[in-house]
Give the backbone structure.
Amino acid sequence: MPKLKVRDGLELAYALEGPEDAEVLVLITGLGGLKEGWFRQVPEFAKDYRVLVFDNRGAGGSSVLDVPTTVADLADDTARLMDGLRLGRAHVWGVSLGGKVAQELALAQPDRVDRLVLENTTAGEVARVDRGESGLRKSNGLDADGWLEHIVPLLFGREYREKNANSMRAFARSRERNPQDPVGIGRQWEAYEAFDSWDRLPSLTHRTLVLVGGEDALTDPENGRRIALRLPNAVFESIDGAGHSAHIEKPEAVNAVVRRFLATGMP
């Protein structure tokens, strides 16, 4: 697993696939998520995009820094990783916390971002209608049964859970065996909760796809509608029957929507 030092004490674990001369697509995962969570996207988009996935600081194979952390720090980490890999302007797709990082990257370094995809995310307290944060906070230390009962229903929609019961049990067992680093996940929560881009959204002029799972039990899809209305150059798309992990639950539908958007600016 390759890693790149992006600042003192911080290495980010990453994977980079696809044609070297293709347009770049950066995929940013959610809170506590791993780059492997994009397993439904990387093989598909790497056919004709240069696809970068990575673990945010505090998760997976990346370093844990026990220092105050903001979404701006995570966005800067992303830009430094892109610089270190000699990747220029990129399409950026972020989910949940990754959607906040994507917003911040586009706001702080607009020339680095081409088209923007924001999946199941929020823009801060003003626009936030979160429904499951208190439950998600209890994830560390749970056994597999606890994950199945309390966390899996927040992360995945009912339809997907019912069709993939064995996979859900395997996921829960994996989470029990590989608990999140409490310092790393705590610093990610710190960044997640402090983020507020609402007042700045009108200045984000990138062509943006705001994507939601219609049955997201963690972050109310109303967040997406509010963000899309607040942005000057956005389109909105809801994926029926999908939950918070729409790109995993409905990969064919989500990938098709994102592909059309990256190519044409329309979902």
Notes: The mean pLDDT is 94. Residues 139 and 151 are 7 Å apart (CA to CA).
